[in-house]
Amino acid sequence: MISRPNPSSQRLVSFACAIAAMALPAAAQDAQDPGTQPSTPTVAVTLPEATTLFERHSEAVGGMEALDAFDSRLLTGAFKGADGMSAFVTMYYEKPERFAVILEIPGMGTINTVYDGDIGWRQAGSNIQIVEGAELVDLIESADYYGEVNWKSRYRTIRTVEVGAIEGVQTFRVAYDSVLGKRGFHFFNNETGLFVGTQTTAALGEGQQAIFVQFKDFEEHDGILMPMKIIQQLPGNKVSTFSFNSVDHETKRSELFDRPAELERLLEVRKESAGASDE
What we know:
With 279 residues, the protein is α+β, with helices and mostly antiparallel strands. It has one domain (7-269): Lipoprotein localisation LolA/LolB/LppX (outer membrane lipoprotein receptor (LolB), chain A, Clam), CATH 2.50.20.10. It is 22% helix and 43% strand. The chain has 6 helices and 13 strands. The chain has helices spanning 7-16, 50-61, 63-68, 133-142, 151-154, 261-278; strands spanning 72-80, 86-94, 98-105, 109-115, 120-124, 127-131, 155-166, 169-178, 183-189, 195-204, 207-221, 224-234, 238-248. Strands 6-5-4-3-2-1-13-12-11-10-9-8-7 form a 13-stranded antiparallel β-sheet. The longest helix is centred in the C-terminal third of the chain and has 18 residues, at 261-278.
């Protein structure tokens, strides 16, 4: 049978949706205030076109050419949860949209969350859960190797709605509607052009929760500028931090996409059930 997700795996799902330089997808509704949102100054400012903001970000991080120089990306680092939980994190991307996150929790074990370009699953020890619904959409949108550089393919509509500030730095807020029907807001730093935050809702536990994610401490690795720290905030001032200490564009970890035997069994059972219901 498909196992029920445990609290640690639910936290991992939220992380998988808040990946460096990725849009955290929203529910199919307007994103709500997560509790601590960027401030909005009263000074009138001419709003740039959203397309201009995405293009500035793409140029700032290195552009499509820099990303195309590699086929994969491996990041390692640490996680600190709002509840005090600490873990080692490994994140792996492989073109065009294969993605895996490994969360190693001392004293608790390892949780793998994987999207192989076709299906998503979560594994904790011998327990496997097929990722479905809103969680799967979150995972698919996080799996894009190119992130916001691939904005023309990621969004149906984008629109600059206001100017604000994050930590005293002027930002432009862009409303988006993704091709998967997700809505939210992205924030672009006016000084650097970088995509530095997103405000949205995420599939956590039994429903959707408002969340604000900030991308910080950008560093260049192999000609690509990327954030080495991700801070995500949930209602109630619950803050989690992800700090990365290494980026590797050479090491391949394609074995992470190998489907476990138990997953194949679950998929076969599902296929047989679908076939029986059609008869």
